[in-house]
Automatic annotation (TrEMBL):
Keywords: Lyase, Metal-binding, Zinc. The keyword Zinc applies. InterPro entries: CENP-V/GFA (IPR006913), Mss4-like_sf (IPR011057). Gene3D superfamilies: glutathione-dependent formaldehyde- activating enzyme (gfa). It comes from Marinicella pacifica. Residues 4-108 form the CENP-V/GFA domain. Belongs to the Gfa family. Transmembrane segments: none annotated. The keyword Zinc applies. PROSITE patterns: CENP_V_GFA. This is Aldehyde-activating protein.
Length: 133
């Protein structure tokens, strides 16, 4: 996979990842649901890829939930999820912060025993290209 670039919502943090991703997980655990405010996190994992902060590294804050391996990095200005370079899990990159399109499709849904009760038959929900009126 070619190098990919990403940024936060406000644009103050920019980064590049060189190397390949090993997996792309949609995680339904209670921690990922809490820190994304959604049904699941969408994270890319790599043991070998290298992260380079292009700008705004000083705005990146990391939080590790005490007693767990769960870590989240984010922009202290806008709160956007950003990559974490973790000792145990390697590089974890939230897919939503990438500015470069990737061809890798999700590898698996994980921790589905913890999925939100309303996360069923979502493909049957109405679809709109914009906010409905």
């Amino acid at each position: 996979m070619a190098d990919v670039k990403g940024s936060c919502l406000c644009g103050s943090v920019r980064f590049e990842v060189a190397g390949r991703f090993d997996s792309f997980y949609l995680c339904h655990c209670q921690y990922c649901r809490k820190d994304t405010g959604s049904a699941h996190a969408a994270n890319l994992f790599s043991q070998s890829a290298r992260l380079t902060w292009l700008s705004g590294a000083e705005a990146v804050v990391s939080f590790t939930l005490p007693g767990t391996r769960h870590q989240k990095s984010f922009c202290q200005t806008c709160g956007s999820a950003l990559p974490s370079d973790q000792d145990t899990d390697g590089l974890v990159v939230p897919a939503g912060c990438l500015d470069t399109d990737i061809s890798l499709q999700p590898t698996a849904h994980i921790f589905t025993a913890s999925k939100a009760s309303w996360y069923i038959k979502l493909d049957k929900a109405p679809k709109f290209k914009r906010l409905p009126e």
